[in-house]
Amino acid sequence: MRQAELTLKGSGATPLPMQNEHSITMGKRWMAPVLIASMAALGGCISVNAPDGPIVIELNINIRQEVIYRLAEDAGNTIEENADIF
Amino acid sequence: MNNNKPIRRFVLGMVAASLALGGLASAAYAQRDPAYEQARSSGRVGEKMDGYLGIVGAGSPELQRLVNDINIKRRAVYAEKAQAANATLEEYALTAGCLAIARTVPGEKYQAPDGSWQTRTSAPPLRDSRCPA
After folding, report:
1. What whole-number distance in Å separates Cα of residue A85 and Cα of residue B52?
2. Bridge partners, B47 (sequence order)
3. CA distance A33 to A37
4. C-alpha angle B32-B62-A83 in degrees, rounded to nearest 5
5. Banded pLDDT at B22 (limits 50, 70, 90)
6. Inter-chain residue contact B130 with A71, CB threshold 8 Å
7. Does the beta carbon of A26 lie under 8 angstroms from any beta carbon of chain B?
8. Secondary structure class of B38 (helix, strand, coil)
């Protein structure tokens, strides 16, 4: 009775770490293609980007026009207040 | 009758205030120098896009002095107002140029976006696309 108990305990303990190891490797194998796919997708996004030169110029024009519109009322008053030099 | 008294006092106060403001305004808003007015109406000076006066055609030393004098005064006003409005001198001067060109009367000269001198007609002037309506 005592011997049977010992062998049962021994056999019961060995397969558990084996099973764990197996499940981890399966997870890694499944993750690898997903990681590669996402890296490829990111790489594609960066290469598609157009040169940002024209975009910067367009922004500059927009900001300046915005400034002119903001100053218009004030400048109109200035011209009226200084009618001798306008 | 009791209700009318404060209203009448308020109206009288407003009339007095507007009269005082009107007096101040007429004192501060001086008119153009006759020589400057004549140079404008005859088209010897014109409004530039950058907010300053320019000489159209061949000028004279006298006309150059008149234009320089006005432009120095304009620049001083632009600098002060631009600082108060948290803008740059160039931004403020360009805005004033837009408005000064819009305020020219038929017969006066102004600078078109291509840099050429134009004579103002009754039609709207040719202005920079960024100018406010």
Report:
1. 10
2. B53, B110
3. 6
4. 15
5. low
6. no
7. no
8. helix
User: Where are the alpha helices (H) located in A1-86, listed in sequence order?
Assistant: 2-13, 15-48, 53-81
- Which amino acid would we find at residue B77? V
Q: Indicate if the pLDDT at residue B118 is higher than 90.
A: yes
The pLDDT score that the predictor gives to residue A39 is: 66
Closest listed residue to residue A78, CA positions, set B28, B35, B72, B36:
B28
Minimum Cα–Cα distance from B68: chain A residue: A85
Confidence class for position B1, pLDDT limits 50, 70, 90: very low
Name the residue among B70, B87, B100 with its Cβ closest to that of A67.
B87
Q: Pseudo-torsion of CA B81, B82, B86, B90, nearest 10°?
A: 170
Question: Distance (Å) from the C-alpha of residue B15 to the closest C-alpha of chain A?
Answer: 22
What is the reported pTM? 0.60
> Which structure tokens are listed for B48?
């530039």
pLDDT in tens, B44-63: 999 999 999 999 999 899 99
What's the complex ipTM? 0.75
| Residues in chain A within 8 Å Cβ distance of B87 | 67, 70-71
